[in-house]
């Protein structure tokens, strides 16, 4: 299923996409998190409802929100999880090129979450070094601790697209990534969740464009730490919860590592695309 959260008449609703329409599921589950909390039974109930009802909305007529607009806790993110991006970042900041031995993990504040087509509120007084990072997002479906890699896939509810928009000046000034990664609107997510049964995440083209010009183009098969390994590391001694969101790192081509460096400007359109999931469009600064 392709699951959306949307706003209609001022109310948050969820639904499943069929063709260009949405079958609203709000009568069964009020929010995406309640659907996820209900595990495989929840998915079966949503599927049954989808099969027995007709679309009530057209995708084009509603305001899509992030599929999980208010996560319970911070988005967990991997840094330097594609070798070419690790190399470009280390070279651009004058460091020794060394691939990570363990995943680099940081988080983004829940208040950074943004809709898939909503603008990023650019404010040059806060940061004029706004950069893009397209990433595959993994949504956890059930609680788990010490999850072995061989079982990790069974803990996944689904997949989405994330752009880990980054204020590079703040990221570097404050040493820890948290502040520079957590500006309001800096985590566009969506346009939907593709449930885990419908997507093989291991070999997907992943692309970003600014004003139609390709900036990042890679494949999820180039991740250094694949999704099972990432879930293994994250869950060691730390419980993962239903609805947790993991951003699995970005490929090379980010703005700050370019020669000369490029940063997003007001009026730019940032597109984030992953094969078999979809495309997000983020206008900058409006
Ligand atoms: Mg990132």
What does the model show?
The structure is a single chain. 17% of the residues lie in helices and 32% in strands. The two termini are 32 Å apart. The structure holds magnesium ion (MG). Magnesium ion binds next to loops.
Q: How do the strands and helices of this protein lay out in sequence?
A:
Layout: E1 2-8, E2 11-18, E3 21-24, H1 32-37, H2 39-52, E4 57-58, E5 63-65, E6 75-79, H3 83-92, E7 104-108, E8 113-114, E9 130-131, E10 134-140, H4 149-152, E11 156-163, E12 166-167, H5 168-173, E13 187-195, E14 205-210, E15 213-219, H6 227-235, E16 245-247, E17 269-274, E18 278-283
Parallel strand pairs: 6-16, 8-13
Antiparallel strand pairs: 1-2, 1-5, 1-13, 2-3, 3-4, 6-7, 9-12, 10-11, 10-16, 11-13, 14-15, 14-17, 17-18
Bound molecules: magnesium ion (MG).
User: What is CATH's topology name of the largest domain?
Assistant: Fumarylacetoacetate hydrolase, domain 2
- Portion in strands: 25-35%
What pattern of helices and strands is seen along the backbone?
EEEHHEEEHEEEEHEEHEEEHEEE
Question: Got a strand count?
Answer: 18
Q: Counting H and I runs of at least 4 residues, what is the number of helices?
A: 6
């Amino acid at each position: 299923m392709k699951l959306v959260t949307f706003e209609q008449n001022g109310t948050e609703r969820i639904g499943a996409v069929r063709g260009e329409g949405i079958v609203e599921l709000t009568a069964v589950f009020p929010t995406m998190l309640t659907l996820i909390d209900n595990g495989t039974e929840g998915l079966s109930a949503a599927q049954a409802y989808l099969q027995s009802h007709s679309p009530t909305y057209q995708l084009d007529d509603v305001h899509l929100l992030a599929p999980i607009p208010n996560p319970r806790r911070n988005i967990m993110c991997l840094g330097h999880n594609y070798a070419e991006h690790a190399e470009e970042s280390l070279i651009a900041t004058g460091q020794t090129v060394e691939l990570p031995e363990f995943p680099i993990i940081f988080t983004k504040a829940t208040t950074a979450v943004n809709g898939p087509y909503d603008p990023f509120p650019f404010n040059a007084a806060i940061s004029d070094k706004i950069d893009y990072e397209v990433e595959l997002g993994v949504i956890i479906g059930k609680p788990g601790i010490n999850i072995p890699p061989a079982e990790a896939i069974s803990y996944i509810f689904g997949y989405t697209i994330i752009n880990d928009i980054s204020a590079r000046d703040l990221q570097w000034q404050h040493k820890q990534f948290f502040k520079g990664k957590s500006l309001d609107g800096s985590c566009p997510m969506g346009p939907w969740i593709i449930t885990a049964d419908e997507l093989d995440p291991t070999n997907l083209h992943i692309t970003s464009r600014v004003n139609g010009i390709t900036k990042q183009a890679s494949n999820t098969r180039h991740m250094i730490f694949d999704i099972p390994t990432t879930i293994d590391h994250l869950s060691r001694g730390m419980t993962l919860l239903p609805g947790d969101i993991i951003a699995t790192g970005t490929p090379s081509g980010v703005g700050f590592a370019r020669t000369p460096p490029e940063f997003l400007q007001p009026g730019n359109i940032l597109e984030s695309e992953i094969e078999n999931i979809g495309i997000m469009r983020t206008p900058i600064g409006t």
